[in-house]
Amino acid sequence: MRFNTNNIIATGLVGLTLMATSLYAEDKVVVATVNGTEITQETLNNVMGMVGGMPGAQVDKKSVLDDLIITELARQEANKAGLTERQEIKDKIKDATDRLVLNTWTQEKAAAFKPTDEELKKAYEERTSGEKVEYKARHILMKTKAEAEGIIKELDNKVDFADLAKKSSDGPSAGQGGDLGWFKPSTMVKPFAEAVAKMEAGTYTKEPVQTEFGFHVIKLEERRDVKPPEMETLKPQLEREYQQKKMLAYMDELKTKADIKVTLPAEAAKPAAEAAPAAAAPAPAAVPAPAATEEKK
């Protein structure tokens, strides 16, 4: 559908474009005048670009120019009505101007912070220096070591691991045959992760692995290398993070040098009885954390 006048006036896009281009256009090519006010080719091109990016919009140069003319007429009538003299309008104009100036300054200042190749390389290495291996495993969780040893004997007798897990495991993954899916070692409790790292794919532990959750019998199904993204893929994100970090440091520096006086009244001190719980109150009992080995299904 054509982007019509009502849509243009409602969004205010053209009004903003008219103001911006009239301020900064140098070599103006005038495509229309409305009661002496010029509409330039640059303004027309800018609006056509905005309209063309909207879903379902069909860009027609003459139609867009007609819309610009109608919008300019509406702007002139609004000015005749004295709206620009209203205080609430002045306040909104000031707020909009402040936001535009602030956003422009922030973007330009941040863009001025350019990381060196060495800084980018260091950031990339830090980002990709994590774990480079993932594992896919199943496990059977038992309450006692003797029970886990019994499970291992059954596995030695060629009993299917998944069937045993469904029948015997105390872990939440029992219903899935003990399947933990793919996981990185850091997502598991340390004894479990260390045991998996020593295993060959297709084997199961010959001794129970003890953790705070019980005794595990683990079957490692697969392992795979985790390939980090290429430097060029991460480069835009690394540059943005660098700029954000530098901007925060720059603003902290400005703050330390500025003459700032905080006049906000301090909150009234709370009564001692409210400031801290009674010493005699017993601390709540610690609640065991859920098994890290069960988070991946």
UniProtKB/TrEMBL annotation:
The protein's Enzyme Commission number: 5.2.1.8
Alphabetical list of InterPro entries matching this protein: PPIase_dom_sf, PPIase_PpiC, PPIase_PpiC_CS, PrsA_foldase, Trigger_fact/SurA_dom_sf
Origin superkingdom: Bacteria
Protein family (similarity comment): Belongs to the PpiC/parvulin rotamase family.
The keyword Hydrolase is assigned to this record: no
Keyword Signal: yes
UniProt catalytic activity: [protein]-peptidylproline (omega=180) = [protein]-peptidylproline (omega=0)
Organism from which the protein derives: Thiothrix fructosivorans
Stored SUPFAM superfamilies: FKBP-like, Triger factor/SurA peptide-binding domain-like
Start and end residues of each stretch annotated as Disordered: 268-297
GO function term, MF aspect, one: peptidyl-prolyl cis-trans isomerase activity
Record key words, sorted: Isomerase, Plasmid, Rotamase, Signal
Span of the signal peptide: 1-25
Protein name: peptidylprolyl isomerase
Domain named PpiC: residues: 132-222
